[in-house]
Batch of 3 targets.
Target 1
Amino acid sequence: MAKVIIKGDFNEAVRRFSHITMETKKAAKKHEYYLRPGLRKIEKSKEALKTNARARKRIAKRTATI
């Protein structure tokens, strides 16, 4: 098992470690399987539509309560 020596703030070290692990997971997911460039573009646009729909829903909920 590896040892880690933390110099300085513990919370800052935890934050940096979680950022590194998040990047590692993102890279692993990206290379999980191969998509042709055209299909990758389609998948990316589908994901963008989902994200934008969630954001619009969240904004509509906020403005409805005001």
Target 2
Amino acid sequence: MDHRLLEIVACPVCKGKLTFDKDSQELVCKLDRLAFPIKEGIPVLLETEARAMSMEEGR
């Protein structure tokens, strides 16, 4: 994941910062506890495509 991209993308729900989870290949919003998939190298920043994270994952 290009670090320059991380500087400009934001969570579509709260407009907060996203972090890259290398192991699961997802962009994570810790505030909303949502994980957005990256499919074929392209972040899918749709709330309907996001995975809800458990309390333990969101830490």
Target 3
Amino acid sequence: MARTVRDIEKIWLNVEGVKKLSDRVIGIGPFGVGMDGLLTWIPWAGDAYTVGAGAWLMIQGLRAQASPATLLRMAAYLAADTATAAVPFAGAVVDTVFVAHAMAAKALQKDIESTHWVEASERDARSSGDHERHVREGRAAGKRRVVYLG
């Protein structure tokens, strides 16, 4: 689990790297192809990359304490991406253009950006009366939820 706001920032940056590597190594205007699309044409290599990168993104979501809805959305994108590999040739074509890793990464990044992070324990904040202040500060900053890292 992330313990500091700096840990959350590192998760966001690492997820950004996987997003680009997976789905936009080669960019042509608004379109791009990444390792996921390129490796899908090599038997087993594409499957290994798809599952490995997807699992890594899910672990980062758990480390960042993403909301259950975000984790479910990420899992749905990644499951759809993995399922396309089961269809010979047509699955490879779909996998090349379906940017599931980027979609899952964007969902996690949006969740991170919409969260007010507090480097304290929730129990201490509630017992001291600071919890309500954290909620007010989060709402004032346009955040949807408060997550305690301590």
